[in-house]
């Protein structure tokens, strides 16, 4: 009975030891086999792998492409126009043994902290050799490539490979942003004032031309009116002259009647004339000058 129990115990221990001597490496992972803190094996091939049970320890790392967000940092380009830059990097662990030696027992966070410092240094170094206009232009792709190439060598010492670097946002610092906006506003206001002045100048020219055209049109119209009026007066005088020439006595009689109609009107007006005045010639005679005037109704 005791021998059976001991045998079963031995078989169970052997089974547990056999099971603990194998481990599985996922295709998205790489594994280190550690023995007393020392790396004894690197397993990068997905599948089943062997380790010494109860002695070896398996440490797994992500084999996928990882992202690192580089927080805002201030850079000073050649033109001393300070900028705030946000960037991110894509990287992967290529040498897990070197990665373990570099970060020790630290995790991915420890490696990313050191990679973040590398990215910041490279970003400041590269962007400090160009002007702010180059950073804000479409040529920034070449700048990102220079940052990546500069970070590759330093990241390799950590067992990392920097695959890509991107500049996300490039802005002015908050302290300079308001001053820049004020300067831009002043420039726009100056341009608006120039446009208004040019518009007023053009309006003055248009108004002056319109006034000149008005004076010319009125002058031409008045000249034509005077010409027409003069021609009408001449025609009137011609008709009067013809009428006077045809019957001078009737024409004189007609003019006298008009004078009587205008002068002998009702009202408070008084007219003092000599009885022998020629004005009363046609009032004294119904037959003309020198004839006795008959009494009305006879």
What this model shows, in words?
The chain is of the alpha+beta class and 298 residues long. The strands form 3 sheets. The protein has a 3-stranded antiparallel β-sheet with strand order 3-2-5, with no helix packed on it. The protein has a 3-stranded antiparallel β-sheet with strand order 6-7-8. A hairpin with a 7-residue loop joins strand 6 and strand 7. The longest helix is centred in the C-terminal third of the chain and has 73 residues.
Biggest β-sheet: strands ordered side by side in the sheet? 3-2-5
- Name the helicity range: 40-55%
Task: Characterize the main sheet.
Answer: 3 strands, antiparallel
Cα-based radius of gyration, to the nearest Å: 59 Å
Q: Uncertain spans, ≥5 residues at pLDDT below 50?
A: 288-298
Give the CA-CA distance, first to last residue: 189 Å
3D shape: rod-shaped
Number of strands: 8
The quaternary organization reads as: single chain
List SSEs in N-to-C order.
HEEEEEEEHHHHEHHH
SS element count, helices: 8
Query: What's the rounded overall pLDDT mean?
Result: 78
Strand content: 15-25%
Q: In terms of structural class, how would the helical and strand content be classed?
A: alpha+beta
């Amino acid at each position: 009975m005791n021998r059976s129990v001991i045998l079963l115990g031995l078989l169970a221990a052997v089974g547990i030891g056999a099971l603990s001597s194998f481990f599985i490496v996922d295709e998205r992972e790489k594994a280190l086999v550690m023995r007393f803190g020392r790396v004894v094996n690197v397993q990068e091939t997905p599948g089943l792998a062997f380790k010494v049970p109860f002695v070896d320890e398996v440490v797994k790392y992500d084999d996928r492409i990882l992202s690192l967000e580089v927080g805002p940092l201030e850079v000073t380009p050649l033109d001393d126009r300070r900028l705030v830059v946000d960037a991110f990097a894509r990287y992967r662990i290529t040498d897990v043994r070197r990665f373990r030696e570099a970060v020790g027992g630290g995790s991915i966070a420890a490696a990313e902290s050191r990679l973040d410092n590398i990215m910041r240094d490279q970003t400041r170094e590269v962007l400090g050799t160009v002007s702010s206009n180059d950073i804000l232009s479409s040529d920034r792709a070449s700048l990102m490539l220079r940052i990546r190439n500069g970070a590759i060598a330093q990241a390799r010492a950590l067992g990392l490979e920097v695959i890509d670097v991107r500049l996300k946002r490039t802005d002015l610092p908050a302290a300079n942003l308001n001053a820049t906006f004020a300067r831009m506003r002043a420039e726009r206001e100056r341009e608006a004032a120039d446009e208004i002045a040019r518009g007023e100048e053009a309006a003055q020219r248009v108004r002056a031309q319109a006034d000149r055209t008005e004076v010319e049109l009125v002058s031409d119209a008045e000249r034509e009116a005077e010409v027409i009026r003069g021609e009408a007066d001449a025609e009137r005088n011609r008709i009067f002259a013809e009428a006077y020439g045809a019957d001078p006595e009737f024409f004189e009689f007609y003019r006298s009647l008009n004078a009587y109609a205008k002068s002998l009107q009702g009202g408070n007006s008084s007219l003092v004339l000599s009885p022998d005045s020629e004005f009363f010639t046609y009032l004294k005679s119904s037959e003309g000058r020198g004839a006795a005037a008959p009494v009305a109704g006879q």
